[in-house]
């Protein structure tokens, strides 16, 4: 950077970043330290360290059931939203037709409106059809933002694939089905993988929709965690912390896996990375 | 007879010329899911909100605007969501500006900045309560350094919710800003530099105008996240008074009083308020330059 003004500017920026992260580390470490602590009253560190809060949390909150429900919901949501979203993205990427803007608007709105706003009417409808409180209801609710998300991330991805490749395959006598399975499928796989992982992160982290539609058997990890903070009866703060740590650790693993497949900054504008 | 037979392919061809052919059938499942699970419930909720338990068609809305405890939730929500969004978007500009260039460990830094997305509201809330609480590390350090005599009131109030929204929202708006900023060709600024523009002029006259449309989108998406502050307003806020946001009012009506009609009415008002804010931002965006940013693709 030229000019002496740029330097102090840079230092101020870095100072703010460091300040933010020091405090953030404080926030996270407080929880992690407490989840391993025996007793902690007003001192710098707990009296001693133990791992029994994790065992407690696992038992008390029925974590194996909760994790199973979370996995089922996430996998079904991924499968359905990819199966439904990718074909729609293909049609949007390859054709321009009257009313396309309206279709796009319909897919943008569920992402642009906060989940709790459409979650309340949706939960009411699900109650009407006796689906609220079931795992089906939770899956249906989570599909609302996931399907548009897959459509909107896959459309630019498909636009990048040269239509001439498909035309060439057809010229060589490939039928529509083999064009899809032999040509488009392999080319789309990286994009589908990236979209699936992002849907996974979104679904596991989606609080509002699951909270509004889940019953006792269909609670996912986020909602179980929230309920545990409000739970009736005395819950040790440390076992809530232990559970929050488990949640964050698993989300972190998911996100780091996702980052191996997608560069997060390329979600909005696709640019080639400078090497 | 022959006329019908020959009209058919002609119609198909005419439609195909306008882009309507069998490929569009691929849209059907996606549209069906979105219509059944989003559009239908939304319209159902809209209709339900006009069918109150007691009173006329507009009774729910009249009750909402007549009762200050309900009406003020709109201002409370905006009073939390707008500052949080401004902080997140404005703070992400300089940081993204610095991070855009060649920085050592760029990938690691981006990853670290993304990590708070995984925290979740509960861990953030628990952490804030312990770290920022009266006996927490932050107040301890401040007391030891002699900066304050008594602990700062950071949690179970407005500040707590704001902090929680900044922690969870900043990484998101930073990522968006960074990607919009990386889409601007650096050679534009270099060209301005050769014409003698200093960094402030380059930023104000070149980068900011090109970035502004992206910032508008970032603002909208961050605002959507901040607007439904439900969990953090409950956990680190003061949900009965200072941080009684509109989503709490909606939830309370629908699932604690079991008045789905009132709950839907509040949800519709939430959507209206949110769409007004987004509409204003997008109208402003419409006045901006939106051509090529000279990006590399």
UniProtKB/TrEMBL annotation, chain A:
GO terms for biological process: transmembrane transport. Residues 67-258 form the ABC transmembrane type-1 domain. InterPro entries: MetI-like, MetI-like_sf. Keywords: Cell inner membrane, Cell membrane, Membrane, Transmembrane, Transmembrane helix, Transport. Its main location: membrane. GO terms for cellular component: plasma membrane. It is found in: Cell inner membrane; Cell membrane. It is a multi-pass membrane protein. The chain crosses the membrane at residues 12-33, 66-90, 102-127, 139-158, 179-201, 244-262. The keyword Cytoplasm does not apply. Belongs to the binding-protein-dependent transport system permease family. This is ABC transporter permease subunit. It comes from Amycolatopsis mongoliensis. The lineage of its organism: Bacteria, Bacillati, Actinomycetota, Actinomycetes, Pseudonocardiales.
Automatic annotation (TrEMBL), chain B:
Its main location: membrane. GO terms for cellular component: plasma membrane. InterPro entries: MetI-like, MetI-like_sf. It is a multi-pass membrane protein. The keyword Nucleus does not apply. The chain crosses the membrane at residues 24-43, 74-96, 108-131, 161-181, 210-230, 265-284. Gene3D superfamilies: MetI-like. GO terms for biological process: transmembrane transport. It is found in: Cell membrane. Keywords: Cell membrane, Membrane, Transmembrane, Transmembrane helix, Transport. The keyword Transport applies. Belongs to the binding-protein-dependent transport system permease family. CysTW subfamily. This is Sugar ABC transporter permease. It comes from Amycolatopsis mongoliensis.
